[in-house]
Every structure is written in C-alpha cells, then in structure tokens.
Design a protein that fits this description.
alpha/beta; Alpha-Beta Plaits; Rossmann fold; Dimethylsulfoxide Reductase, domain 2; 7-stranded mixed beta sheet; globular
Length: about 1000
C-alpha cells in the first residue's frame, strides 16, 4: 500500500525532489563524487537532489509515488548492470551513483528525442512557455535536433506530420486523415485539456488517484495509442467524475492541462503565500501574479493543513474579488425605501457614527450592537468585538459561528476544558477507525476528505452516521464499514446507544478512565447509559438505525485501534447540539481515544475563520480566549489595555437582538462580513427585526440580502487585499498576506478603526501585526504568537505560549485542560419540531462542493456551472405519493414559511426525509426553517424541519415579492457629474 505522503523541505524551498521523503535509518552513498546521507528507503533521485544534483525527469513528482515510466532519469550505479531509473531505485549503504556519464547523456537525449518527435513545436506561442518541464528537460539533456521524419503523430489533424498548425486547424474535428488527433477539450470553465501535447507520463492520472482520490482519469489504449481519458467516449472533463481540484493541472509537466487564466494572462512572474478564505481546512496557497494582476492560485506544498493540495473553490474560485458586483464606494440612505447614494468615506463614517451615537443617547448604550464575521481575519474580528465593548460600551456582540459551531465550544468546554478540536490534520494518517457524524467532508472540507480517503484506502475503517448517503459512504476505492442512516434529530440517542454497547459489553478503557477522567462522574454516567432504554434495540424505532448495525459500529470504534471522530453541522445545528457534542466526547473518553496522534474529537469548521471568530471573543458572554465577561480579573486585563470600563453584563445574541428590535429596544447594528438575512433561520423574523432597526451598517464586498435593510454600506476588502491571520479547524493560525492593494482603499480592520474613531475612540493601529500583538498580550493561548513568529514557523496551533512555544498539534496529551475529563449524562429529548399530517416529512440541509455558504463568493464565479440553483432531494417513494417527477417545481412548506425549487429523485435520502442546500437567495431555504435552537447556545436547529412537498408551477408569491423588494433596495443613484 502506498505511503501517506507529507513533503519535507527546508522552509521556502519549492524544488520538486522527484519522489516523496522517507523516514528510516541513515544511509550514506556517493552521487557524482559527493557524499550524501539520507533515510533508508529514499530514492536515488531524491538523494541526488539532496546533494544539489537534479536528475532530469518527467513522470516523477515528490507528491506522488515513484512510477518509472519516462526513462529520462536513468543513472549508472557501480557494480550493477544496466541503467536503472533513479526514481524507483532505493539507496543502499556505500552505493556509488553516476548521473552524467556519456552513456547516460546519450540515452537521455534519445528518450527526449522520441518525446519531441510526437509533440507540437509551438513553444513560443504555447501557454506553458517558460513553465514547461518538457521544455526544461529538453534543454537539460541538450537536445538540439530531432532526426525522425514526420509521420504518425497526435498533434496534426491533417496527418502530414506538420509541426506548425494554425489555431483554427488545431481545433479541426477528428474525422480528418489522422485518427489519432483529438481536439482540445475546453469544457471545464477553468482549464483546458490538449491531448496533442500529452506525453502520457500518467502524472495527472496518479494525482487524481493518490492525491485527490477521485479516480476520474485513466490511461486508455496501449503503446502509441495510449491517451488520457476522463471517462467514457461520450465524456469530457466537465461531464466526467472530475471535481476540478486542479491536482491534474498542477501535476502536468506540459501544456496538456493548463489554466485558462494562464492562457489569457500569461505566465506569472511573482508569488505571495497566503491562506484560502473558504472552508475551515485553511489551505495555504501561492498567489501567482503578473504585476498586480492575479493569474492563478497554486496550493503551497509547505502548507501544513493541505500539504500541497486544493479543491475547486480555493484553486479556481477567486474571481469574485474582481467581480462587477463589488461595491467599492461607501453608500448611505435615510430610509431603506430610498435608493443608495455614493459618498466619500468621511461622509459615510460621520453619517454612521452620528446615527449610532444618537440611538444610544435616545435609547441607552445597550440599544446597538455588532456582528462579527467568520470570513474576516482574527485581527478584524478582534476589533469589531472591541468596538462593541470599548466604544459602544456593551457586550452586544455575536457571530455567525454561533449559528454553526457554538455547541462545540460549550460541549468540549464542559467535557475537556477547552472549546476546540484535539488534533491536527496530519493525525488522520495514524488513525485506524474513523467516525464521521453529521459531516460531509467530500463536499464541505474536500482537501481533508482527500487525505482521509487516502488513509481509508490504506486500510482504516469508516463509520458514517448521517441521514443521507454522502459520497464518503461509497465512492471510488472507498466504502464505509457501517453507514447508520439515523432519523434527523436523534443524534443523542444514537451516540448514547453506542456508549451503552461499549459500557455494557466491557469495551471501555478502564485504565485510561481511572487515570485521566473523573471516576465518580464516570460511574454515574455508566449507570445512566447501561439502562436498557438506551440499548440499540430500544432506540431502533426512534432512530431508524438497525440495532445490529449500531452494535457492530460501536464495537468497531471501541476495539479497532486508534479511533478518531470528525463531526460537523449535522451534530451542532440541533436543539440538542451541545448534548451531542458532550456525548461524542464521552465516547472518546470511554475508549481512551484522546491525547495522542490518530485519535481525538475533531469538529470540521464550516468557514475559514469560524475557530478564530470564537477565539477572538465574538460571543456576548465571553472576552477573547473564552473567558467570561463577568470575571473581574479578566475584565481588568482588557480595561487596562483599552482604557475603558467593560460592562460585566453579557450582551445579546443575534436572535435576542432581532427580538429586541421587533420590541423596539434594539435600534442599531454594525454587521461585518455576514449575511444574516440569508444565513440565519426563520427569514421572516430576521427581516422583521432588521426592518425595525433605525441604523443598519453593512460592511461587505457585495450588496447582500441583509443590505436590503441597511442604511449604510461600507465596502469591504477580499482576503487577497489584506494582512492578518485565519485560524482553521485544527487551531492552526495561518498568515493572510496582501496580494494586491485594496480596491476600496482600506483593509477591513482599517474601516472598523475609522468608524470607532468617528464615534470618539482614539485607536492608532497602523498595521494588522499590531492588533495581533494586542491579542497576544491579552489572551493566554495566543501569548507567543506574532507575525514575526509566523513568518519564521509558517503556522502554529494554539495554545502557543511559554508552556508550548512551538504550538500544540495534539491537545490533552498528559491531562485534560480541565484537569480531569468530565463524563456528562446525555439524556435524549425530542425536538419541539414534530412531523404530523400537515407536515409529514423532515427537511435537513447541507452544502455542495462547488458552492460555499450563502454563495456570495462562489455564485460570482464559474462554479455556478455545477450548481446553478438549489435542488430538493426527495426519495422516489415520497415523490410518487405526491405526483412529483424529476426536475419538477415543488412547493416546500413548513410551519414557518414556504418556498419553491426544483426536485431531484434519489435514494441518497431515506423515505420521509428531504434535503436541500442553501447557497442561492432565490430559494431562500431558511424561510422554512424554524426558530428552535440548541438549549445551551441558541445555535439554530437547521437540520430538523417538518415540511410538506407538493407540485408547484414556479416561485411563490413571497419569493416574487422578496425579489421585487431586493431589486428596489439595490437601486444606486448615478454618480453626480
């Protein structure tokens, strides 16, 4: 089985060493007279590269296992016959290698001559000119002429062997004299596939297999007829299984697979290392530019979260940053019925500050508040909550993180003592049993999913707990050992039943529990879960999970070796979200699966800085570092740093703000980088709350749905235009670096500072690094973090302080943060949302690979080609009962509201369950979700809504009126001459 590959290089060294790094005993050999010592198992090619000798290669790459097909890397080894390939030959003690003998040079030149004989020589006009490994290798071996006469080839549609074709002729159909010529495939919106330039090195196929794990590509045919195929004869790259991750494009040594942006804009000349602004994986990228123009995003091989891989969003979907919809000038209006009026920054800030101060003078200092963004940097989020506490002088601060992962903070805080995941992503290579509950990593966290699938192909076992059959349940070369398709809303019952099996069958790790956990609490918990009412057989009717499958899954997790649990919004977005998180923590402690590599409890955070927005004190009851605002010693730290008195009374969460607005006591809101009208539940209530406010300030890239009710619009900056940090799902603090100047003139933290100063503050930050220095000075888990340190180390996982100067990849190694681990009783309580005759189905929601959250970014890219609208998944049995056919418009109605969308029939969902995404405002899926929420954190219960489905002729009256109101609200007066 192939090794799990983690490239190892000195920081900043991007050389391709040809084959993966190995670990083992040291071996010393001589390469061209130079002694070099490398680990046992290292290839001769990599050993030569370590000595500074780069052996020519075409099929080899250090993120792929050695293949040995191109024969360009041959060497001579003293005492051996022949000329072995250096990529597939392991080193041996005392080996003497020669890479530049006359025989080797002659062989390499002959091999290269064969490649070039079947390759178009259009180098000057080729998009890969200057960035082509074939071109470089030809120069490296000294090829100056091709002796072969024109004949059979793959690049000439006329069949004459001509090496110079016009673009028009290159696109001629296949029915010409040359049957081997295949025209360029331009179906994918982001890259082209030109078979005429393919050298059949198989790197794209292997990258799709080994790195991505999709297996969408293959080599079809044999010998001279070999070619890369993306599926059946009827398929192209768009219709194939390709997920457009870009691994094949990155692997290609020629212009066979090439970004369309490079074809259009030219080969990039400089690069900046930054961090992706999509999901919580936190991939590192090289943003490659010509001047100030971004040409492409290339996954950075030193990125510790992604290890040189990417997904379609991070790799290609950055075009929204320059989209025509971006608002670059501040705008104001007196009333939400008025059109917007563009103004200068000074006027917009004065207008906003005067209104907010006026509201406080009239209605009290707690009448206004802020919402921070999980898409903005740590530094920006820190300043927004500081604006509330240090300028507004209240704790009315909340964040979108509360509507997704606040139960994680509560549940893990109660059981483990800290509000974050326990592992780094590298840990997955050492796991033996993986439990995925309420998460869809192939769509929501695809780069992590690729790493996970690789481990599963190596033999790890998988348990999936999800009402829907997601792709990870069964896909190419991966199949779950158990899929537990529970009824939505019964997570607690399933998790407790697993614990019942572990305890009653004596499968728990008693030694671990006695040493690491509170034994008295465990005994109380064990007595609770041992009750017959928690057995798989007793809860089967409730959960709809077969008792036999649940028992076998519990046994596998408890006895299968290192067990790791990964969970997502399907756990947290329930009325018992916090209870389920505590139940998951109980399972991990029961089996001793906390505190070492390959195990743990790992929340898959949805957005790029969900973890960071929580860390920075975005919640109304917590200051940065998860310290309660009521604690005098904690307040004293910030009062000294900020020079103000901090209110000890916790503030309002978003639902409370909206309730208070309807009641008339909450009047003003500063909302940075968040679209609560589309993302929060019960859309009617959100709209009513926003409409009742007298000053809504939206700070964002686009006129989003919330801006329909705004009075001030402050244009934001994209992640490409700012300095700062993001904190990903593994607590990794990654640098965000400015790739280009802000199109609006300011980074987002600067806009917040301008607003604060307009309201009377005296902030004087001149760079985001100064904000991080303040965070470090006031927040113990960040006390060792600075921009200088991140420049040196690349990234670090908090806690990072005197006790852990290099960060903390694995939490709770010797003891829990809370000292002892705490077992907590997890009583199942049914949600108040019930099915019945009027609403007999259960709706659950989720994401899709090509789109992101509310779609504000991805809908403004070519990603819409894969998902142009939200679709309702319905089981064929339920569809037949309701007269619904594939592609029909259906009415989706609940007790809260109704909308319409198209239906697709699938057995991915069980009878009685329907599913949709929430990426498109035209659907506004949250108009049907309820205001029920988690008992501890108010996290909305998005995943359980009782609904009914019926045929429809198209959009509802509400959708049409909503669209009309939105269009009216987005009118912008023409700029004055």
């Amino acid at each position: 089985m192939k090794d799990f590959i983690i490239p190892q290089f000195p920081p900043g060294d991007d050389r391709d060493m040809g084959t993966p790094a190995k670990t083992g005993a040291p071996v010393t050999l001589t390469v061209d007279g130079f002694p070099v010592t490398v680990p046992e198992g290292t290839s001769v090619m990599r050993a030569a590269a370590e000595a500074g000798i780069m052996v020519p290669k075409l099929c080899a790459s250090d993120n792929l296992e050695a293949f040995g097909s191109c024969r360009l890397c041959v060497v001579e080894i003293e005492g051996r016959r022949g000329t072995p390939a250096s990529c597939t030959t392991p080193v041996q003690e005392g080996m003497v290698v020669h890479t530049q003998t006359s025989k080797i040079k002659r062989l390499r030149k002959g091999v290269m001559e064969l490649y070039i004989s079947d390759h178009p020589l259009d180098c000057l006009t080729c998009a890969a000119n200057g960035d082509c490994e074939l071109q470089d290798a030809a120069g490296q071996v000294g090829l100056r002429d091709v002796r072969y006469t024109p004949g059979d080839n793959h690049f000439d549609p006329s069949g004459t062997g001509a090496r110079s074709q016009s673009e028009a002729r290159l696109r001629m159909p296949v029915d010409h004299a040359n049957p081997r010529y295949v025209p360029k495939d331009e179906s994918n919106p982001y890259f082209t596939f030109d078979p005429s330039k393919c050298i059949v090195c198989s790197r794209c196929v292997r990258a799709c297999e080994e790195v991505q794990g999709t297996f969408a590509l293959t080599i079809e045919g044999r010998g001279f007829d070999s070619k890369v195929s993306a599926g059946t004869a009827a398929d192209d790259f768009l219709t194939s299984d390709c997920v457009s991750c870009g691994a094949c494009v990155q692997a290609c040594p020629t212009a066979t697979l090439q970004e369309k942006s490079v074809i259009e804009l030219g080969t990039p000349e400089r690069s900046v290392i930054t961090t992706c602004a999509y999901c919580g994986v936190g991939c590192s990228f090289k943003a490659e530019l010509n001047g100030d123009q971004l040409v492409r995003m290339v996954p950075y091989k030193h990125g510790k979260a992604n290890r040189g891989h990417s997904c379609v969003k991070g790799r290609f979907a950055y075009g929204y940053a320059n989209h025509k919809d971006r608002i670059l000038k501040p705008m104001i209006r007196e009333n939400i019925e008025d059109p917007w009026r563009e103004v200068e920054w000074d006027e917009a800030l004065k207008f906003a500050a005067d209104r907010m101060k006026g509201l406080q003078d009239k209605h009290g200092r707690r009448s206004i508040g802020v919402i921070t963004s999980s898409r903005c940097t740590n530094e920006e989020t820190y300043l927004v909550q500081k604006l509330a506490r240090g300028v507004f002088l209240n704790n009315n601060t909340d964040t979108c993180a509360r509507v997704c992962h606040s139960p994680t903070g509560y549940g893990l805080g109660k059981t483990f003592g800290t509000s974050a995941g326990t592992q780094d992503f590298d840990s997955v290579e050492k796991t033996d049993v993986v439990v995925i509950i309420g998460a869809n990593p192939t769509d929501g966290h695809p780069v992590f999913a690729s790493r996970l699938k690789k481990r599963l192909r190596q033999g790890a076992k998988l348990i999936v707990v999800d009402p829907r059959r997601t792709d990870i349940v069964r896909s190419a070369h991966v199949e779950a050992a158990h899929h537990l398709p529970l009824r939505p809303g019964t997570n607690v019952a399933v998790v407790t039943a697993m614990a019942h099996v572990i305890v009653t069958e004596g499968l728990m790790d008693e030694g671990y529990i006695r040493e690491r956990c509170d034994w008295d609490e465990f005994q109380h918990y064990a007595e609770f879960v041992s009750q017959d009412r928690h057995s798989p057989e007793a809860v089967e009717a409730l959960t709809q999970v077969p008792a036999k499958d649940l028992r076998e899954a519990a046994r596998l997790y408890a006895t299968g070796g290192n067990g790791a649990i990964y969970y997502g919004l399907g756990v947290t977005e329930h009325s018992q979200g916090s209870t389920t998180v505590m139940g998951i923590a109980n399972l991990a402690m029961l089996t001793g699966n906390v505190g070492r590599e390959g195990v743990g409890v790992n929340p898959l955070r949805g957005q790029n800085n969900v973890q960071g927005s929580c860390d920075m004190g975005s919640f109304p009851h917590e200051l940065p570092g998860y310290r309660h605002v009521k604690l005098p010693d904690v307040r004293a730290i910030f009062e000294k740093a900020w020079g103000v008195e901090i209110d000890p009374e916790p503030g309002l969460r978003i639902p409370n703000m909206l309730d208070a607005a309807v009641e008339g006591t909450f009047k003003g809101l500063y909302c940075q980088g968040e679209d609560i009208l589309q993302s929060d539940p019960d859309t009617h209530h959100v709209a009513a709350g926003l409409k009742a406010m007298e000053c809504v300030i939206v700070h964002d890239l686009f006129l989003n749905e919330t801006a329909n009710y705004a009075h001030v619009f402050l244009p934001g900056s994209s992640f490409l235009e700012k300095e700062g940090t993001f904190t990903n799902a593994e607590r990794r603090i990654n640098r965000v670096r400015k790739v280009m100047a802000p199109l609006n003139g300011y980074e987002d933290w600067e806009v917040t500072q301008l607003l604060a100063n307009a309201m009377g503050a005296s902030w004087h930050y001149t760079h985001a690094s100064q904000i991080m220095d303040e965070i470090a000075a006031t927040t113990p888990s960040f006390s060792g973090v600075s921009f200088d340190m991140l420049e040196e180390k690349g990234s670090v996982q908090w806690p990072c302080n005197e006790d852990a100067p290099d960060g903390t990849p694995t939490m709770h190694v010797d003891h829990f943060v809370s000292g002892k681990g705490h077992f907590i009783v997890t009583e199942y309580l049914a949600t108040d949302e019930r099915t019945g005759p009027r609403f007999p189905l259960l709706l659950t929601t989720g994401r899709i690979l090509s789109q992101y959250n509310v779609g504000a970014q991805t809908r403004r890219t070519e990603n819409v080609i894969w998902h142009p609208e939200d679709i309702l998944e319905i089981h064929p049995h339920d569809a037949e009962q309701r007269g619904v056919n594939e592609g029909d418009w259906v009415r989706l109605a609940s007790r809260s509201g109704e909308t319409t969308l198209r239906a697709t029939l699938t057995d991915r969902v069980a009878p009685g369950v329907v599913y949709t995404t929430f990426h498109h405002p035209a659907t506004q899926a949250n108009v049907v979700t309820t205001d029920f929420s988690d008992w501890a954190t108010n996290c909305p219960e998005y995943k359980v809504t009782a609904v009914q489905i019926s045929p429809s002729n198209g959009p509802t009256d509400w959708q049409e009126s909503y669209d009309a109101q939105a269009q009216q609200s987005r009118r912008i007066l023409p700029a004055a001459e």
